[in-house]
Each structure stands twice: as C-alpha cells, then as structure tokens.
Write the structure tokens for this entry.
Amino acid sequence: MSAGLLQLGLNTKLKEQFESENIDLSKLARVIREHKELYVIQNPDGLFNAEITGNMRFTAESRKDFPAVGDWVEVSIFEGGQAIINKILPRFSVLERQSVGAYGEKQLIASNINTAFIVQAVDRDFNLNRLERYFVIAYNGGIKPVVILNKCDLISPDQLQELKKQIADRLKDVLIFITSAYSAQGLEEFKNFLKKGQNYCFIGSSGVGKSTLINYLMGQELFETKEISEATNKGKHTTSHRELVLMQNGSILIDTPGMREIGMTEISAGMGMTFTDIVELAKKCKFNNCSHTDEPGCQVLEAIEEGIISFEEYENYKKLGRQTEHFQATIAEKRKKDKHFGKLYKHIMKEKKRMK
Ligand SMILES: Nc1nc2c(ncn2[C@@H]2O[C@H](COP(=O)(O)OP(=O)(O)OP(=O)(O)O)[C@@H](O)[C@H]2O)c(=O)[nH]1
Ligand SMILES: [Mg+2]
Ligand SMILES: [Zn+2]
C-alpha cells in the first residue's frame, strides 16, 4: 500500500472492500475540498482540481450522488493535471442534514468520518437542544459524536462544571472536551485523543472556534479565523467551504463552515440513541399508539411527573418526532428510486406498522 494512500486514511479493511469492487487502486484519490461542484482531490502524487463526469451529473438523483469532502473516488488524471472523478466509492459513514427551506433535499456535509466534534462556545453559543440535534445527525450517519466546549476562558470554573453536568444529564455517556484556544486549557489532552488514520469532522455554529482549534492541531495558521461582529457581520461565516487536512500524527481533520440551523434527516434511527430513556418508556405505555399527551397508563407522562425525565427533554423529543414524520413523507416521494433509501423506508414503514 502506498504511503500516500495510508496518510489519506486508507486502511486494510477499506482496501479489501475497494478491491472486491474491482477498483483500480492506482486511480484512487480522496476528495479534500469542495466548492460548488468544483473539487480538489488528493492522491499520492499530490493535489488536483477535479470535476465530475457529465454522465455522473446527468444520472444524479440526489445530493448523495455527488462527491463530498471525505469521499474516496476513482479518478482519471489528464495531461496538464486536470482530474475527472469517474466514480464515488461506497461511504462507510455520512454526515448530512436537511437543507434549510428545501424540504426533502439533504445536504451532505462530509463522508467517511469516524468522529464528529460538535463544537460549542461556552459564552453565547451553548445550547443543549442544538447539541442534541447534532448528536442525532451524527448517530444517523454512523458517526460517533464528541462534544467540545470551547472558549472556556470566558466563564468561571463553576459555570463550566454546571454546563458539563447539564450535558451529562441530557446526553448519556458523552465524551466532553473543555478547551480554550486562548488559555490553552485542555488543548494537549484533546490533541492526544486524536488517533492516526481516524477521520474527524468539526461542526458547530459560526464563530465557535472550529478553524482556530484545527490551526492549533496543525501547528500553523492554515485556516482563516475571525471574530464575528454581530452588528456589522451578521450571519457571515469565516470558513466558506469544507476542507480535509492531514495532521502530522496521521489524523485526518475536516473543517466546515458554521451552521446556522441544523435540519433533521431521517431521525428515527438516531432518536433511540439520544432519547434512550423516553424511547424505552414509550414501549411500556398502555396503548401501543400512545401519543404521550393525555393517555391513561402513559409511562412517559408518569416519568415526567415523577421527575425522572425533564419536561424540556420531552418537548424536544416530541418536536423531533413531528419533524421526522414530515421529512419521512417528503423524502419518501422524492427518493422512490433511491435504493438505499428504499431499504430504509421499508424498514421505517415496518416499524410503524408494528407500532400500530
Ligand atoms: N476567547 C476565546 N476566543 C476564541 C477561542 N477560540 C477561538 N476564539 C476566537 O473566536 C473567533 C472565531 O473563531 P473561528 O475559529 O474563526 O471560528 P469558526 O468556528 O471556524 O467559525 P466559522 O468558520 O465561521 O464557522 C476568533 O476570533 C477566534 O480567535 C477561545 O478558546 N477563547
Ligand atoms: Mg472556520
Ligand atoms: Zn405514552
């Protein structure tokens, strides 16, 4: 195996999988940057600008049929260094969200990621409900979520402990890093957590310090970082595209632009993991189709009364549930032809029937 491909994250398991699909390993590359259907790919020879084939564009049925940062692709490289992406190889995980305002259309943030760092700044950005939503999109895509509470220099140690406790109460078994790019607190511990050959994606609102953290890990000012002035720069993002970079220790990092909203994709799969308690309780309700609003024998309502689960958690659970149903319906129409989705859809319908 070429050292270059190893550094890009190829491992034995992936290699065997690609070989079983008759992929020519000499044509293997990874998408490291994406901006409006223009891509940069990297292979052992270096970086190349790339486009997709006309055929890929014409046969594409959804965003998933276009390359994303993190993708392994098969490419042809022409004289002069222009590359054409012929094929996207199967993804082992995807980070995706519902686009704002476009029902049924999903946005593929990145692919082939092991861990998503959900970055929140402890001063103004901290928000449990939003954190929970990020957890859901991570779990849905087969990605492990880890929380980073950044800018810890801005609040007191007591306040920090309180935030930590709030997270631990709401999200079970969650790993939390507390960092400050200014005081350097927690940075070495965080850096030591990163493993060779693992793929990490940084997500979170604009201005929380994603690029600042990556610059620290890379040991250079690779990405532009900027203070966001609310008055003059409202909604402006400093990072404008997604980009994959290779860390000295062999870790693979992806920077992303801040998200203003995180829409939901098919939530059902992820939901059981963030709302384990409620989902478990709901199974024991007296009525199978209990809506957990006023039914007798509702275990969820009882648990709220007894203070076992918080009302806020319950509200959030219901809100996500409604969105799931809505998106399942719209996506179902749009994705009838999508095989993968078809499978998932069948699974959901079966579950629904079973629950009736
Ligand atoms: N006080 C404090 N400020 C920080 C810390 N980390 C980053 N910042 C500052 O926060 C601002 C935003 O940081 P960025 O790294 O650009 O934020 P980002 O998450 O990449 O933002 P987008 O690219 O817009 O998504 C910069 O001015 C940083 O210097 C920290 O730990 N403490
Ligand atoms: Mg940034
Ligand atoms: Zn119930």
User: Anything to note?
Assistant: The pocket of guanosine-5'-triphosphate (ligand 1) is lined by residues 150-151, 153-154, 180-182, 206-212, 225-227, 237-239, 257-258 (CB under 6 Å). The chain has twelve helices and 13 strands.
